[in-house]
UniProtKB/TrEMBL annotation:
It catalyses: glutathione(out) + ATP + H2O = glutathione(in) + ADP + phosphate + H(+). Residues 12-256 form the ABC transporter domain. Gene3D superfamilies: P-loop containing nucleotide triphosphate hydrolases. The complex is composed of two ATP-binding proteins (GsiA), two transmembrane proteins (GsiC and GsiD) and a solute-binding protein (GsiB). This is Glutathione import ATP-binding protein GsiA.
Amino acid sequence: MSPSNIPFNPILTADDVVVDYALQGRSETFRALKGVSLSIGEGECVGLVGESGSGKSTLGKAILGLAPITSGRISFAGADITHARGAARRRLASNIQVVFQDPYGSLDPTMTIGEILAEPLTVSGTSTADAKKAVAEMLDRVRLPSASVDRYPSEFSGGQRQRIAIARALVRRPRLVVCDEPVSALDLTTQASIIDLFIELQRETGVSYLFVSHDLGVVRRICHRVAVMYRGEIVETGDGESVTREPVHSYSQRLLLASPVADPARQAARRQAWLKLRGAPEPAAAVR
Ligand SMILES: Nc1ncnc2c1ncn2[C@@H]1O[C@H](COP(=O)(O)OP(=O)(O)OP(=O)(O)O)[C@@H](O)[C@H]1O
Ligand SMILES: [Mg+2]
């Protein structure tokens, strides 16, 4: 997606965030984020790409209050939420939501879709009648039949389950959704329709996304800006088009060359370029 012309009002800012995980049975810790700074504007989709283990999910977890933050600061709508816990964190849940890769694992199989979607509303004090109305509206928005309310997650396909997970994330009208590889488990056609749904919902509601993906094609389609992570650091940020088509940092270039293309001749040329780059030293972080 081309850069948006939305005025930049940060809804979320991460400033020099460091996360250290305790290693079981050992005294030393593992530094998964080494001082990450990133901002997400209102109504913006920021992509986070990088190889497995680079720290993408950890940054998402840090925003959701699920990772041990050693230092740095995370602000949401101007308020410091770095160490928000308990009641403060529960209040934030109406504004910051998450969609994971595996919708089946995150949907309670013993609850109907109606119950799954109403729960976040009723626990925060919405009346049953209002919750029912909001659930029907939400199902319509994610293009699921209204009769879905009486069915269970196991009765839906992977793509439909992801629609349910998206509906659940959006039912409280959050301002930010952390999407952690939300289309990676889906086939290409389903992927495309779920990406279109994310784009449409963003247009309708003005919600912001942090969109984690290892697929540059997906990120190019949906994100206004992209950040590239490498070993716990952001090595490059820029608009979606240029970072995914003409990356500056050699790691981002390798990431691009490692993503497959259909044409065998182009694929062979990319492989040669990738092999050449593999030994190249890392330049300083590129930010544009
Ligand atoms: N709870 C934990 N305890 C210890 N180390 C962890 C924990 N969670 C993640 N890590 C480590 O932190 C690093 C970053 O993990 P993270 O899950 O953020 O990577 P990722 O970029 O999301 O990878 P993937 O693309 O495979 O999902 C990895 O080396 C991982 O092994
Ligand atoms: Mg991950």
